[in-house]
């Protein structure tokens, strides 16, 4: 059974950093995409980072809204993916989700990261940035 479990959220002050983890099981590893999304109260779910793998070729991207501060990385050996978030701001406060898609094409990670293209989701982890 395919599962994704996020961890690492919490309360931090503006300017601090956090690293979220997404531990996966039961996924297809030949080609896939892992996306990180966030949803703040009253707002739509927003894609913030994406990692694509196909036979040894990888591609990663961050949304314009977080570019230069957020980065996604994968540890295939441990089936875990990370979202490193630096210089956090109060507007980054949200529930953060990781999601998985079994797709052969990397375009899923280009442009706007569309949550409708991801099939499996974790339960989310809360990130609160406040002084």
Listing every helix as H and every strand as E from the N terminus to the C terminus, the arrangement reads EEEEEEEEEEE
Strand content: over 45%
DSSP summary: helix tally: 0
Helix content: under 10%
Give the integer mean of the pLDDT values.
Answer: 94
Structural class: mainly beta
Number of beta strands: 11
**How far apart are the termini?**
40 Å
Unreliable stretches covering 5 or more consecutive residues? none
Largest sheet: 7 strands, mixed
Q: Outline, from the CA principal axes?
A: globular
Descriptors for this entry?
single chain, 131 residues, 7-stranded mixed sheet, 11 strands, globular
Walk me through the structure.
- With 131 residues, this protein is mainly beta.
- It has no helices and 11 strands.
- It has strands spanning 3-7, 10-12, 18-25, 31-39, 46-54, 57-62, 70-75, 80-85, 94-101, 120-121, 125-129.
- Strands 2, 4, 5, 6, 9, 10 and 11 form a 7-stranded mixed β-sheet that branches.
- The chain is globular and about 45 Å long.
- The mean pLDDT is 94.
